[in-house]
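Friendly challenge for the regulars: who can give me the structure tokens for this chain first? No prize, just bragging rights.
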Amino acid sequence: MAKGLLERAGFKVDMQTMDCQSMFDRLISKKSAPSEGGWNAFATSWVQADILDPLTTPFLTANCDKARAGWPRDESIETVRVAYARDQHRR
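First reply, four minutes later:
Bragging rights claimed.
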């Protein structure tokens, strides 16, 4: 479904199914061009336990190269995460 929607929006899609280790290997080459083994986008799924905790969910990290693929950088998010971690530690 995602492939079809992306193509309808005008994107060229090269759909590649792969095992988890292959995906991680490709993510490591994160900033390379797709022709050099890099990528532009990928789809995966998560179980709820992986994303419930704001300290461990990869979707709320914004510390650049240490963040999830896409490498967001947002100091305000990181400040809130650190404050939350300190508050949780004190409890």
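The chain has two domains: 1-44, 47-91. The mean pLDDT is 83. Your move, everyone else.
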